[in-house]
Amino acid sequence: MRRDTLKGYLFISPWLAGFLLLVAVPFIDSIYLSFTHYDVISPPRWIGAANYKRLVMEDPFFWKSLAVTLKYAMIAVPLGMVFGVGLALLLNLNIRGIRFYRTVFYLPSIIPLVATCAVFTWMLNPQMGLMNSLLRLAGVEGPAWLTSQPWAFYSLVLMSLWTVGGSMIIYLAGLKDVPASLYEAAVVDGAGPWQRTIHITLPMLTPVIFFNLVMDIINAFKYFTQAYIMTEGGPEESTTFYALYLFHRSWRYLDMGYASAMAWILFLIIVAITAMLFTTHKRWVHYGR
Amino acid sequence: MLAAGTMALLLFAWMLTIPPLRRYPDREPIHFWHMWTGEWKVIVDDICTAFNESQDTYEVIPLSIPRQVADSKFLLAVAGGAPPDCMAQWNQVLPQFAESRLIMPLDEIMAPDELLAFQRQTYPIARQIADYQGRPYCVPLALDVRACYYRLDHLRKAGLLPASAPRKVATQEEAATIAALLPQSLEELTEWGSALHIYDKEGRMVRLGFLPERLRMFASVFGGGLYDRNQGRLTLNTPQNLRALSYLGDYRNAVGYDRVQRFASALAGDDGPELPFITGKISIMIDGQWRIPQMQRFAPDIPYATAPIPPPRDGGRPLAGWVHGNFMIIPVGAKNPAGAWAFIKFWTGRDDPARAADFYVRAGWLPPSPQVANTAHYRDFVREHPQFQPFIDTLSSPNIEASPPVPFQILLFDLLKRMEGSVMRGSTSPAEALEKLEQEVGEVERRRRELVHEE
Amino acid sequence: MRSRSPLALSRRQRAATHIVLLLMCLPFLMPILWMVTTSLKSNAEIFPQTDEAAITFSLDRIFPDQPQWQNYKEALETGPFVLYLRNSLMLCALNVFGAVASSALVAYGFARMRFPGKDLLFFILIATMALPRHVTMIPVFVIFKALGWYGSLLPLIVPAFLGHPFYIFLLRQFFQTIPTDLCEAGTIDGASELRIFTQIMLPLAKPALATCALFQFLTTWNDYFGPLVYINDPAYYTVAYGLQQFMGNHGSEWAQLMAVATLFTLPIIVLFFCAQKVFIQGVATTGAKG
After folding, report:
1. Residue B400 lies in a domain
2. How far is Cα C243 from Cα B368, in angstroms, rounded to an integer?
3. Inter-chain CB proximity B100 and A41 less than 8 Å
4. Which of A6, A26, A146, B419 reaches 20 to 30 Å from A233, CA-CA?
C-alpha cells in the first residue's frame, strides 16, 4: 500500500512541483491582495472586506460584466456542445471522403486566435465584409456587426461556433473508443440508429462530454481575448466580459487589490459549478470499465 | 534517439546564432523602451545610434514594444524589480505612475541649473504635461498639437473658395491669403463641412466633409476646459463644456451616427498613403502636425492648408484645443538614471539645439523647447512648410489645455469616451451625460479620499 | 465486394449525409478562403470605388484579377521574420515535448494509481485553471526573477515540463476509458508501472496525445506576451510578436493584414497535415479494439 502511494506521488510529481513552485504562492498572495488596496507598486494596505463589499454593493459594472459573461456561458456553451457532438456523430459515419470533412471542420480551430479575430473583423466589416456584401446581394442591408447592439455579442458567439472543431475532435476520439461489438450486439437486439445513439453512443461518450463541459464552462467564464481585440468591450458595454473588466481594473487602472477580489469571486463561482459537476458526475459519466 | 539528437543539435545552433546585443560591451548600458514602430522606429533608432556615437560612456539599447502591451510589460518590470532605465510614453499614465511612485520626479536628477533651464526654456504647455503636484515627472520629447487641415481642391470644387484664391500653399504669402478665406468661426466651419459631405444614391456616405470629435478637444474651444489648474480640480459639468458636448452631439446626429460608423469602417487606413484625407475620403480633418511630413512624402501634389480650430462666434476662444505629446519617464529603481538623463538631454537638445533640430525636422515633431524651434534649421523648415505655422502659433497660446493631472487619468478618459459614445449614439442627452459623468468621477474621487484618510 | 456490416448506411442515407456535410463545409471554409483571397488582392479590389460606399457580393470578385504577391513581400519586410520563425519553432518544439511528456505522466498517475488525497489533488488541479492569470502575473514574475531566470528563456520553457492541467485532465479522461484488463495482464507479467505506462497506455492514447501536442503548439505559437515579458532582447522574439507589431501599425490595411494572418497560420496547417496520420486516422485505428 505505501509503495503504491509513493509510486502515485512520483507520477504526479512534475505537476506537484510546478504547483508548489509557481502556482501555490501566487494564489495565496492574490487572496491576501483581495483584502487590500494595492496599486502594483506601493506596499498593499489592508482594508478588510471593503473590496468585496464595494463590488457587490456599489459597482454596477461588476454586475453588468457578470451578466454579460453568464449570458455568454448560457448561450455559447450549450450551442457549442450540441454542435460539437452532432458534428462528431456525423463525422463518425463510414462514408467516402470522411477524412476531408473532418479536416474541413477541424481547420478553423487551429487557426491562431489573433488571426481568427483579424479575419472575422474583416468578414464582419459593415461596408466591405463578406457577410454584408452577401446580404446586400439578397437586398438586405446588414448591421454594423461589431459596433452595434445586440449584434456585437452575437458575432462573438458566432465566432465561437466557428471554432467548434476543437471540441469536435475530442468527441470524435471518444467515439472511436466505443467498442464496435457493443453496436453489433445492439443491432442483433434490433436497435435502430437513433436508439443506438441514445443508448450506446452518448453514454459511452460521457467521459469526453464531461471533460468538454467542464472546460467550456471554465473558458466561458474567463472569456477575454476575442472581446479585448475585436470589440474592446463595446458598444455600450454589451461585450464587457467579466475578465475584460477585471483586466481593466488590474492593469489599466492599477487597482490590483480590487481586481484580486474580482478574480476570487470568479474563482468561487467556477469552482462551485465544477464541484457540482464533479459530485454528480459519477451518476451520469460512464467510464468503460 | 535520432529525434532527440537532432533537437539538441538544433538547440545548440540556435544559441550560437543569436547575434550579440551589445555594440559597445564595455560601456554602461541604458535600457530604453518605446512604442514606435515602422518609419518612426527608424528615426528613433537613428537618434540612439547618434547618441552612442556622440560619447563613449554610455550605450543606449532601444527596445520597441507593441503598444497594446507596453504598459503591462513596463508595470510588471517595475513591480518585479527589473525596470528599464527610461521609457518613451504617450498613454494617459503620467499622473498615475507619479502618484504610485513608479517613476522618479526628475528634479532629483537634474542639476539646479538644468532644472532652471527646464523651467525657463520649455513651452508652458510642455511643463503642464510634465507636472504632477508641482514637480516634473517626465521630459516631453515632442508635442502633439491638433489643427484643421483643408483640402483646397475639394473646397474649390464645392465653390467655397473664390477663383482668385491661390491653388496651393507653398509660400507664407499664399498661406496668409488662404488663411483669410478659411472659416473664421466654428459655425462657418460647420456649414462648410455639411456642404462637403457626399452621399451615394442609397444615402450612404461616400465622402465626409468634416467631423468634430472629442470633448477634450472642444471644451477649451468653447471657453471651457476639463481642469482648473489654479484651483486644482476637475471642471466637468460646466455650461461651456455642455455647449461643446451639445455641439458635437448635434453635429453627429445631423450626419447620422450609424452612417459615420459605417463610413469609417470602409476607410483603407488611417496612416501613410491611406490617410483618408489623402485618398480624398475626408475634406476637412482635425489632426496633428505629424501629418505634414506624411503629406509631403505620400501626396506632394495635393493642395492643402492648415488653420487653428476656429472658435464659435460667442464665448469661444481662439488657438484652443487639447495638446498632448510623447514624453520620457525614468522608473524608480532604474539602474542607470544618470545615463537616461544624458540621453534625454541629447534627444531634446538641451546642450546642442541645432543638432537636435535635425531629428525634429526629419520626424516633423514639435519641439518642447523654443530653443530648438528657434534654430535656423527648424525655422527654414517651417518657412518651407508654411502649414506648420498654425501649430507653432498654437503652442504658445494660453488657451490650450493638457490632460487633467489627476491620478486616475486613464479611468477619466475611459469614462469620457463612454459618455461621448452614449451622447453620439443619441441614447443620453448631453446634459444628463455630463451630470452622470460628474457623479461617476465624484465617486472615484470619494473612494480615493477614503483610502488616503484611512492611511 | 466487402460484406455489408450491419452498421453501414443505405445509399439514400449516404447521399443525404454528403449533402448535409457539404452544405456545412461552406461556412467553415469561407472565412479561410476569404482570408487567402483578400491577401492576394489589390486595394482597388478590396475597397469600394470612389463613387460608391459599400460592396455587393459578386462571384467574379472572389478571386483577385492579378495575385498581388507583393502584399506578402511587404508584410515580411516589416520585421526579421526568419529569425522570429526559428525562435517560434524552437520554443514550440521544447514546449510540446515538455507539456505532452509531463502531462501524460501526471495524467496516468491520476487515472490509474491509488494514493491518499488523489481526488482532492485532482480537484485542486482543475481549480487552478479557474483563477484569471491577470492577478497572479506579478508574483509569478517575482518568482522567476528570484530564481534568476529573468532575461533568459527558462520561464518560457520550464513551466511546460511541469504539466498543464488542461492536458492532464484530457489525458486522464482517456486513460480511464482504457479497459483495466489490458494493464492487469501487464501487471501479471511482472511489468513495472512505468513500462505499462510507456508500452501499453501511451500507444493507445496516441490520438489524445496528438491533440495535446497540437494544442500546445498553438498555445506557444500564439504567445507573444511571455517572450515579451521575460526577454528584453528582440533577437529572441517570436512570430506572434511580429504579428502583434504589424497589427498595431497596419490595422486596416486589409490585404497586408490578411497576408500576415495567412503566413502566421500556414506553419500550423502544414504541421496539421503532416501529423494528420496520427491524428485523424490514428483516432480511427485505436477505435478498433472492440
Report:
1. no
2. 33
3. yes
4. A26
Categorise residue B283: left if φ over 0, alpha if ψ from -120 to 50, beta otherwise.
alpha
Task: Decide if A136 contacts A246 (C-beta within 8 A).
Answer: no
Calculate mean pLDDT across residues C216-239. 88
3-state secondary structure of C65: coil
How far apart are the C-alpha atoms of A244 and A231, rounded to whole Å? 11
A39 close to B (CB below 8 A): yes
Residue C278 grid coordinates: 496520427
Q: What pLDDT does residue B194 have?
A: 93
Q: What is the CATH number of the domain that holds B343?
A: 3.40.190.10
Q: What is chain B's percent helix, strand, coil content, to nearest 5?
A: 50, 15, 35
- Residue C97 Cα, gap to closest chain A Cα (Å): 14
The answer on C156 and C44 residing in a single domain is no
Across chain C, what does the average pLDDT equal? 83
ipTM of the complex: 0.87
Q: What is the pLDDT of residue C281?
A: 53
Please check the confidence at residue C182 and state whether its pLDDT lies above 80: no
Question: Predicted confidence band at B85 (pLDDT cuts at 50, 70, 90)?
Answer: very high
Chain A residue numbers with beta carbons less than 8 Å from the beta carbon of C262 are 115
What residues of chain A lie within 8 A of the CB of C281, using their CB? 99
Range of the domain at B417: 146-322+405-448
Q: Count the helix, strand and coil residues of chain A and give each as a percent rounded to the nearest 5.
A: 75, 0, 25
Q: How far apart are the first and last CA of chain C?
A: 24
Inspect the interface and report whether the beta carbons of B102 and A41 lie closer than 8 Å. Answer: yes
Using alpha carbons, select from A87, A238, A241 the residue that is nearest to residue A162: A87
Please name the member of B79, B265, B421 whose beta carbon is closest to the beta carbon of A40.
B79
Q: What are residue B66's phi and psi, to 5 degrees?
A: -55, 135
Q: For residue C59, what are the domain limits?
A: 11-68
Residues C131, C197, single domain; the answer is yes
Q: Is residue C139 located within the same domain as residue C187?
A: yes
A135 lies within 8 A of chain B by CB: no
Tell me if chain C has a CB within 8 Å of the CB of A222.
yes
CA distance to partner chain A, nearest, from residue C238 (Å): 14
Whether C284 has a pLDDT exceeding 50, the answer reads no
Is the predicted pLDDT of residue B321 greater than 90, yes or no?
A: yes
Cross-chain residue pair B11–C232, CB shorter than 8 Å: no
Range 75-94 of C in CB contact (< 8 A) with B: 78, 86-87, 90, 93-94
Q: How confident is the model at residue C208 (pLDDT cuts 50, 70, 90)?
A: confident
Of the pLDDT bands very low, low, confident and very high (cuts 50, 70, 90), residue C201 is confident
By the 8 A CB rule, do B331 and B106 touch? Answer: no
Q: Do the strands B324-329 and B304-307 form a parallel or antiparallel pair, or are they unpaired? A: unpaired
Q: How far is C233 from chain A (nearest CA, A)?
A: 23
What is the total count of domains within chain B? 2
pLDDT of residue B3: 64
Judged by a CB distance cut-off of 8 A, whether residue B410 touches chain A is yes
Q: Coil, helix or strand for B62?
A: strand
Q: Does C110 touch chain A (CB under 8 A)?
A: yes
Please tell me if residue A248 touches chain C, with a CB cutoff of 8 Å. Answer: no
* pLDDT tens digits, B255-298: 999 899 889 888 877 777 788 999 899 999 999 998 998 898 88
Closest CA of chain A from C197, distance in Å: 10
A182 CA to centre of own chain: 32
Range of the domain at A273: 30-284
Q: Does residue B160 share a domain with residue B258?
A: yes
pLDDT score recorded for residue C59: 77
- CB-based contact (8 Å) between B449 and chain A? no
User: Pick from B374, B391, B413: which residue ends a domain?
Assistant: B374
Chunked mean pLDDT (size 10), chain A, 289 residues? 82 93 92 92 89 92 95 96 92 83 88 88 89 89 88 95 89 78 80 82 87 92 91 88 94 92 95 91 74
B263 shares contact with chain A (CB less than 8 Å): yes
Same domain? For C111 and C158 the reply is: yes
Could you tell me if B435 and B418 lie in one domain?
yes
Say if residue C196 is in the same domain as residue C131.
yes
Smallest Cβ–Cβ distance between C249 and the set B18, B19, B37 belongs to B37
